[in-house]
Structures are given as structure tokens and as C-alpha cells.
Amino acid sequence: MNASSDSRIRSVVIVGGGTAGWMTASALAKLLGRSVDIRLVESDEIGIVGVGEATIPQIRLFNGTLGLDEDEFIRRTQGTFKLGIEFVDWTRPGHRYTHAFGPIGGRELGVVPFWQYWRKAHAQGWAGELGDYVFNTVAARGNRFLRGANVQNSPLSNVFHAFHFDAGLYAKYLRGYAEARGVRRTEGKVVDTTLRGADGFVESVTLAGGERIDGDLFIDCSGFRGLLIEQALHTGYDDWSHWLPANRALAVPCESVSPLTPYTRSTARDAGWQWRIPLQHRIGNGYVYCSEFVSDDEAATTLLANLDGRALADPRPLRFVTGMRRKFWHRNVVAIGLASGFMEPLESTSIHFIQAAISKLVALFPDRDFAPAGIDEYNRVLQFEYTRSRDFILLHYKATQRPGAFWQRCREMPIPDTLAHKIALFREGGRLFREHEELFTELSWVQVLLGQDVLPASYHAMVDLLSDAELRQFLDGVKGVLERSAAAMPTHEAFIQRHCKAD
Ligand code: FAD
């Protein structure tokens, strides 16, 4: 045996069995095989947070890595398809726009993005809203869905989608997957953590019954409490409440109603916003709010008054502080999921961050010497992605004309320089650039900026190379193709019925 194989990680201990714990266990079991002993500890008494039902398209890569069949996954999780998020009343009451996945417009004309052409036509007063030229938005408005069809040069050839699913069922599904690949699950409550004297690394965790579990690498998936990363290692937390002041949520399921919509809806309310996530067996709803501006009782009344069907339970309260750990990886502990930080679910990013963390951990999988360069790289990349996503979420609050004290505070708050620069660049001439590992591309930013009335003062000079008549022909042509393609799709409900209806 050579020196390097001798220092390999032999055992991984995952504390927590929510979405983060079971996604991590499944991926490590699949990718590392049985070369490493993987144990997961979870407490039935504590349970899981149980929300987290809307995703972004990257989850398909994760499920693909595991080799999950998409229809089986949808069936097992009571899932539905998601084409984007509809934002209602965010810009001002009575207004709505969609942040859809996938491209904007149709074929590209040279190097100038489609929205530059749209901007000129819109300023001339004859083009419809940007969403009329976004395939997923057009399909979502008609409640249509198709996974993609073999039609060349058609928007139908690649439909960008994500999922809504029942978080509890997803964790259960992944548990079966991970256990079948050798992950050992222990039910029990961790009551103590032992640190190594020499370097402060975590040596073991102890369960309420007295069992001690040793490991080389510990993954903290214990949720908001951050059992290892915070309670044991005191890593510290960057609190972003001054930018994202919502600190509570109430979640309540209600009966399903027709039609089954293929998108998440976010509706602005007096002190925050309400989500609506359609699943096959129910609709998930919640009100994310700032407790300085509304009482819990008032929030519950607002939530319950705005459901599509009969409530199936009492509203469940959740509390949080938006922000991130100063280090996501500290010593031999990697925090994944809510243990690593919390961003409100406005753009459905949390499950993606779990996935991003797992993929980076696999890429930088350590030896038992835990060399610092890999750890620093892990923290740098994830913190960058997390911070830039925060800016994107912040934009929704900043660029609003909504009345009311809460929204006035959001509109007037100072924002990070990175966001101020992005907005200024866009206002000047519709310019947007994605930097490094930013999660959200120009396509996402432009839909929210324009959706919330941040309009560029001018458009790109190259747009004038088209005459007005050519511009009209171009935009009308794109719109017609998108409308005809969407009309050729089955309804979302019919698609699910045919391919992935849950029992
Ligand atoms: P949890 O689900 O809290 O799991 C923690 C685990 O640790 C549990 O198994 C628990 O038993 C265990 N544990 C804790 N302490 C101990 C102990 N002492 N001993 C043993 N075990 C212990 N994300 C999205 O991507 N999309 C969304 O739409 C979305 N909506 C959200 C809405 C709200 C209001 C909130 C709060 C979050 C939302 N999220 C969303 C985030 C999402 O819920 C989480 O990212 C996801 O569920 C992962 O949670 P987790 O596994 O980190 O934590």
C-alpha cells in the first residue's frame, strides 16, 4: 500500500436525514461506491423541515447522475413539472410576469441578444411583453407541458424544466436508493460531539442511547441548528437580514384544483410573499414574511384566505435567519443544506445549493490530511455562488413600486455593490454579463429586471441594422412559432396522466 492510499478517507458520517442528508448519502454511495463506509444518523423525534418542493432545472443533472428514471421519480414523489415562476403583484399590485427557464426568443440574430430587439420594438409601443417571446412562459400560460419532442428547429425539441415534489417522499425515495448501495442508517439523536485535542477536528458523535460513532469526514446535514458546523465548531454566520428581512414562514397544504399548473407562483403580500406549488395530491402553500411588519395571526389569516382549495392542515410555523456560514467546510466538517445557510425560497435555490455542494465535495474529496487548498477552494466557489444568488433574490425586493411600509423599506435599502453595478449596467443599455460560477444566467436576470420595470435607456446599436419592417417581421415570426408550438403540446395534466401519474 502506498502512502497516498493509506491516507484515504475510510468513513463518512452524515448527521441528518432530510433532503440534504439523503441527497448527499445517495450521491456519495453512487460515486464513491463501497470504497468508503457511509453512515447516516437521523432523529425521527426531531424530523425534517419538510418544505422545499420547488426546484430549478439543474436537479435533472443530479437525478441523472444517480440514474433515476424521471417518470418513476415523479410518480414516487407525487411530482409535477415546472417551467418557471410566475410573480404576481411584485412590481406593483395588478401586475404579473414570469421568470421562465430556457431561452428567450427564437433563433439568435448574430451577437445581440434577443431582448435588445424586443426593447426597441417595445419602446416603439407595438411589441407585447417580453413573456410573449419566451417559450416556457407561453406554454405555462396555457398549462401545457411536453418533455421534449424530436422536432428539428422547434422549441419543442428541448423544453427546459424542473420539478415540484413532496420533500418527504423525495427523502424517502433517496433513502431506499442509498441503503440499497450500502449506506447504513442509524435512528437516534446526537447529544454530544467529541473534538480531537490536537487540532479540534470532530472525532465522534454520541447518540442519546450512548452509542459513539467515529468518522474521518463528517457532513453536517442537521438543518438550521448546524449541530457540528456551529454548535460544535462555532464557525460563525454572516447574517443578511438587513438585505433580506423576511424571518418567518407559515406553510400549509391545500386540496388540489384543476388545471394542474406547470409553474410555481409567488404572490407579493403586505409583509412578504406567498408561494403556491402544485403537486399531484395537493398544493403546497406558504407565506414568507417579516415579523416586524405583520403578526403571526395576521399572516395565518392572509395565507388561509388565499388558498385555491380546502386547507388540509393547520399552518406550520418556521423561523429562520437569512445568511450563510462563514465557512461551509471547516476542519473535517462540511455543512450541506440548511446547516450551511438559508436563502429564502423565492427562486427555489436551496436544493440546488445542496446539489452544488455535493458536486464540489466530490470534486475536492479530501484525504485524511485535509489539505487546506482544497477546503479553501470549496469555500470560495460556494460562497461566490451563494452571494451572487442572494443578489438576484434581492433584486426582486429592491425593484418594486409596491405600496406599504415593508416594501418601502426594501425599495430604499442600500444594496451590495455587486448588485448596484448589475442594475446600473442594465439601465444604461440592457447589458448583462454572467461572471464565473454565477448560478443565474443573463436570461434569468433580464426576465426579472424587465419584469420589475427596470428598463434600459437605450438598446444596442446593431439592432438598427434591421429596418422597422424587418424588426416587426422577426418578432412576429418568433411569437407565432412559440404560440403554435405551445398549442401543439398536451396539457400538463394529460402529460402526467399518460406518463407519471402517482398511485
Ligand atoms: P432538515 O430537513 O431540517 O433535516 C435535518 C435533519 O437533521 C433531520 O433528519 C433531523 O432529524 C436531523 N437532525 C437534526 N438534529 C439532529 C440530532 N441532534 N440528532 C440526529 N439527527 C438530527 N428549497 C428549495 O429548493 N425549494 C423550495 O421551494 C424551498 N422552500 C422552502 C420554504 C421554506 C419556508 C423553508 C424554510 C425552506 C425551503 N427550502 C426550499 C429549503 C429546503 O427545505 C431545504 O434546503 C431542504 O429541505 C434541506 O433541508 P435539510 O435536509 O438541510 O434540513
TrEMBL record:
It comes from Chiayiivirga flava. Keywords: FAD, Flavoprotein, Nucleotide-binding, Oxidoreductase. InterPro entries: FAD/NAD-bd_sf, Flavin-dep_Halogenase_NPB, Flavin_halogenase, Trp_halogen. The active site is at 82. FAD binds at residues 17-20, 190, 338, 351. One of its GO terms (molecular function) is monooxygenase activity. It comes from the Bacteria. 7-chloro-L-tryptophan binds at residue 82. The keyword Oxidoreductase applies. Its EC number is 1.14.19.9. It is an enzyme of class 1 (oxidoreductase). This is Tryptophan halogenase. It holds the Pfam family Trp_halogenase. L-tryptophan binds at residue 347. SUPFAM superfamilies: FAD/NAD(P)-binding domain.
